[in-house]
Structure formats: structure tokens, C-alpha cells
């Protein structure tokens, strides 16, 4: 991440302008869950510690919603600094939605959800198959 932020002029500018931006981005991209706590600090006053908390809040918001865009919207509404950031740089909201898709795809909790849903659907499919087979066997003589 530090190399990317140096090479990208826009990210480098944000890092210089806002002390907690890099820690926010780093924590968000980690996909690690943690306790969500409201941060009421203005964007220009965000410290590194508050940036980490904002990133943590973003991951929690994304995980709590079915759509990444809904999670990012919730994150924006709950955190003043994120709201200010998206108002000053509208492209960042779209960027964070795309980053959220990647976080969901690569995070352990995203994988667990996909595997768990797939397992439940497979078990339901097996149960319905057994039910249909048993009904067919029981009623097969009557139907001929």
C-alpha cells in the first residue's frame, strides 16, 4: 500500500492532506472485523488511530449489508469524516464500493458466507431429491 500511495498522485495528496487516510485505507482493505465505534471527528482532524477505527467501521458496515454499495452508504451516514471525504471527492465513494467488493471476495467472513450458503443449498437439494424419489416409489405403481 505505501508504494501504491506514492505512485498514485491522488492517493499521495490525500495522505498528505489527511493524517489518518492511509490507516483508514489500510484497515478497510484488510477486511478484518472489529467493534464499530462512531467517530465524530472532522476529516481534517482525523488521527491515525481514528483512521484505523474508520476503516474498521467500514468493514463492519460492508459486512452488515447484502450489497457493498449499501454498506458504504451506511458507513458514510454513520461517520462524519467519511461523509466529508465523499462530499469533497465524489469518486472515492465509487472507489470504496469497488474496494468493498474485493474485500468481500477475499475476506474470510466473505468466504464463510459463500461456503455456508452453498452447503445449506446443497443439503436442501438433497432433501428435496430424496422426497421426490420416495414419493415416486410410493406412487409409481398407481400411476401406471
Describe this structure in words.
The chain is elongated and about 80 Å long. The termini are far apart. Helix 5 packs across helix 7 and helix 7 packs across helix 8. It is mainly alpha-helical. About 80% of the residues lie in helices and about 0% in strands.
Strand content: under 5%
Extract low-pLDDT stretches: none
Secondary structure: helix percent: over 70%
What overall geometry do the principal axes of the alpha carbons give? Answer: elongated
Number of strands: 0
Main beta sheet: none
Order of helices and strands, N to C?
A: HHHHHHHH
Provide the structure class: mainly alpha
Distance between the terminal alpha carbons, to the nearest Å? 69 Å
How would you summarize the topology of this molecule?
Blueprint: H1 2-7, H2 9-17, H3 21-30, H4 48-64, H5 68-78, H6 80-88, H7 91-106, H8 108-143
Amino acid at each position: 500500500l505505501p508504494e501504491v500511495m506514492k505512485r498514485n498522485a491522488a492517493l499521495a495528496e490525500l495522505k498528505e492532506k489527511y493524517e489518518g487516510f492511509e490507516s483508514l485505507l489500510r484497515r478497510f482493505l484488510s477486511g478484518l472485523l472489529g467493534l464499530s465505534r462512531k467517530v465524530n471527528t472532522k476529516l481534517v482532524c482525523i488521527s491515525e488511530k481514528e483512521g484505523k477505527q474508520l476503516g474498521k467501521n467500514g468493514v463492519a458496515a460492508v459486512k452488515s449489508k447484502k450489497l457493498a454499495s449499501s454498506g458504504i452508504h451506511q458507513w458514510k451516514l454513520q461517520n462524519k469524516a467519511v461523509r466529508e471525504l465523499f462530499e469533497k471527492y465524489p469518486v472515492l465513494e465509487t472507489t470504496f464500493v469497488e474496494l468493498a467488493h474485493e474485500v468481500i471476495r477475499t475476506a474470510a467472513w466473505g468466504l464463510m458466507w459463500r461456503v455456508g450458503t452453498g452447503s445449506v443449498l446443497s443439503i436442501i437439494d438433497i432433501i428435496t431429491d430424496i422426497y421426490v424419489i420416495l414419493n415416486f416409489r410410493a406412487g409409481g405403481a398407481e400411476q401406471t
